[in-house]
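testing teh design pipeline on a random one, pls ignore if ur not involved
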C-alpha cells in the first residue's frame, strides 16, 4: 500500500483527536510520514475593526495551535513516526487541499461529528468539501471513545462496498491489501438499489426476472473477486435495498472496524444534496470509512 505520507487535520475537537489516534496507528503500520495540520481561519473580517492588531492576533493563534499539537503527541512518538506539524492561516478547505498537493500525500484522516452532533445528517462542511474535492483516499472517523492513543491499527473485519463498475477493481485491491497487511477478515458487498428499480416503471419490472438480476449480480461479484484474490478468504454478499443502509447494517452486524468504498460520480444536484452512497455512509456509520476517489484507487 502506498501510504507513505499521511495527513491528519486537527481542530482540537474530540472527533479530530480520535482521528489523530487513527492517524498515528496507520503511520505506525505503514512506516509513513505523518503530517499534523491545523488551519487558523482567516481573520480578514477583523481587519476593519483591528487594522493594527490583526497580524499579532493571527501569529498568537498559530503559536497556540502549534503548542496544542505538541501536547497531543509525545515527543518520542513524534520522533519515531517522523511527525511534521503544519499550521497555516486561511480558508480551511483550500489550505488542506494545498497541503495535500504540496506534500504529495497518500491519505487524509478527518474526524467527523457523524450522527452524534446536531442531528444524524450533519457531518460538517469541511468533511463535505473534502469528500467532493480531495484527490487522495480520505479516512473519516466518527466513533468517539475516551481519548486514548491507539497503539496498533485496529482492523479485524473490513467491509468493502462495490457497485461492480470498472473502478471497483482498484478499490477491491485496496481492501484486499489492507486485509492482508492486518490479517483482517474481508467481506465484499454489492447492493441492488431498490430505488433504481422503482424508476424502471411497472412494465419493465414485470418483464425483468428479479431472481435472475440477483444471480447475475452474484456472478459479477464472484468474478470480480476471482480476478484479484490470491488465496485470501473473502465473503461475498449481494442484497437488495438502499445501498447506504445495507452497507451500514452489514458493518454493524459484523462489527466491522473499517468500511471501504469508492466515491461515486453524481449529478451536480445530487452532489449539492450530498446524495451519494459514500457520503450517506460517512454521515451515518459508526464505523471509520475509507473513501477512495473514483479516479485514483491505488493498490
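output:
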Amino acid at each position: 500500500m502506498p501510504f507513505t505520507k499521511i495527513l491528519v487535520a486537527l481542530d482540537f475537537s474530540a472527533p479530530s483527536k480520535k482521528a489523530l489516534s487513527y492517524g498515528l496507528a496507520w503511520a505506525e503500520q505503514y512506516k509513513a510520514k505523518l503530517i499534523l495540520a491545523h488551519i487558523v481561519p482567516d481573520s480578514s473580517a477583523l481587519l476593519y475593526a483591528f487594522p493594527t492588531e490583526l497580524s499579532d492576533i493571527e501569529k498568537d493563534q498559530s503559536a497556540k495551535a502549534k503548542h496544542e499539537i505538541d501536547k497531543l503527541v509525545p515527543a518520542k512518538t513524534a520522533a519515531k513516526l517522523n511527525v511534521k506539524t503544519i499550521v497555516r492561516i486561511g480558508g480551511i478547505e483550500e489550505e488542506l487541499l494545498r497541503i495535500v498537493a504540496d506534500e504529495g500525500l497518500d491519505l487524509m484522516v478527518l474526524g467527523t461529528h457523524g450522527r452524534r452532533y446536531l442531528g444524524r445528517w450533519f457531518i460538517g462542511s469541511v468533511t463535505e468539501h473534502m469528500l467532493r474535492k480531495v484527490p487522495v483516499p480520505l479516512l473519516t472517523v466518527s466513533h468517539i471513545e475516551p481519548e486514548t492513543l491507539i497503539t496498533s491499527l485496529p482492523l479485524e473485519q473490513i467491509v468493502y462496498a462495490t457497485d461492480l463498475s470498472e473502478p471497483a477493481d482498484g478499490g477491491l485491491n485496496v481492501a484486499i491489501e489492507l486485509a492482508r497487511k492486518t490479517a483482517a477478515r474481508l467481506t465484499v458487498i454489492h447492493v441492488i438499489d431498490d430505488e433504481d428499480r422503482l424508476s424502471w416503471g411497472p412494465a419493465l419490472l414485470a418483464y425483468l426476472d428479479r431472481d435472475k438480476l440477483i444471480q447475475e449480480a452474484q456472478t459479477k461479484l464472484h468474478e470480480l473477486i476471482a480476478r484479484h484474490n490470491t488465496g485470501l478468504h473473502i465473503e461475498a454478499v449481494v442484497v437488495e435495498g438502499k445501498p447506504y443502509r445495507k452497507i451500514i447494517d452489514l458493518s454493524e452486524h459484523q462489527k466491522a472496524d473499517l468500511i471501504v468504498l469508492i466515491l461515486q460520480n453524481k449529478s451536480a444536484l445530487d452532489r449539492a444534496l450530498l446524495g451519494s452512497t459514500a457520503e450517506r455512509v460517512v454521515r451515518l456509520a459508526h464505523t471509520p470509512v475509507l473513501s477512495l476517489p473514483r479516479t485514483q484507487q491505488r493498490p
